[in-house]
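Quick illustration, no need to memorize.
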Amino acid sequence: MSSGGIGVEFSLKNLPKMLPGLILCAVFGWMALQWDTSTHQWSREYKEADKLLKAVNAGTGVTSFAEYKQKIDDGFAKKTEAFAAAEAAYKAAVAKGEQAKEPKKPSKPLVLKEADFNQVVQAKTIPGRMSFGDTMISFQMTYVAVLLLVGMLIRNTVGLPDVFKAGTIAARPLIKPGIIILGAYYMWSDVLKVGVFGLILVIVFVMGTQLLISFWGRRAKVDSGLAGVMGAGVGVCGVSAAVAVAPVVNAKPRDFFYAIGTILLFGTVGLFTFPYIGKALDMSEPVFGAWVGTAILNTAQLVAAASWYGHESLLTANVINIVRVGFIPLIVLWAIYFYVVKPAVDAGHEGQKINVWEIVTSKFPIFVFGFFIMVTMNEMGMFTAQDRSILASNLLKLFFAIGFAGVGLNIAFDDLKKAGGSAFVIGVVSATLKAVLAAVAVVIIGADAFKVKG
């Protein structure tokens, strides 16, 4: 999980330095959200137009716009009446203390514009913008993908002027308030349900990867500082775990950025390939979320891949990631033992004295507690469906858009090239092995075990 603000201190004093980059990310994020809104709308229109065109070709479709609109209005009216009856029955059952399933209010149906309707019926063709939008959505080209791809393209072609760099780095932590808001979609019962399997996945794959890299790195005579941050980053949750372990293993700046390069390289490849692998394997959204929550190393890239795949995927991935994040203190303790205490004991010297509590408390990601608070508030019934819709449509997407703009504009090929050598091989092989085995595991377990209803 990227700390986002490495080298940038958040203060009023540094605001002028950060402001140009933050404004750039805000504008870039706003443009991507407009893209997202338009392509999703065009995709919905395409599906409606395609259904209409098939009916027309079959000789069963309506021939006038007035008839078409009236038919849709009548269908929506019937659904609304049925909902009203079901809602009344639900309230009556609740009043009697009986268990009942709350009915879902029907959403307003999409009605094509008259000009589009006439083109479909008369010319028997679907407007180009609709086909384009549906194609973009089928390739998962949502605002997250646009921000990452275009941002990376800008950074590695025309480049990012120095005046914007501090602000784009400072924008990345804004992803974390978005994750906190996601808590409004969860119930503790769902978290616990997914958490049981998530805990198993974490123990087997995350801790297993950490142990594999630790022992493999020592056998390959990789410097303990580099092996320590590499194992934490690849084994647990990317940058934050590496940051937490770095002072324990006395990692040099070279070691830290070397490991981060490896983590970002694997995460970038996973970000742009996992959604297509998931589609090819016909993974449901909850199963894909469980997979990326276990396999992708960096929270920003994990959330990006899950968001790219779908909202249910994001909910599950975040729960699995929360379980994974909880292992940071244990990874710190493992690093203290394996890289500090054990070598000292083996050498016959007293182990180095380290304030474990101070390290754990200073490195544990605070935003996780915010997520827990939001889940608790939702469990207490403090968020309605409308509240969650407002949070998702406005705040969550806003934070994500600005944050991912910063992520995309900071993916530099030169930084990724820093990953290499035996440590790179160990990290990538271990991460790939974890990803493959985790994919097999989540598919076998199935979607029901990972579905978060919220």
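The chain has two domains: 15-37+141-449, 42-137.
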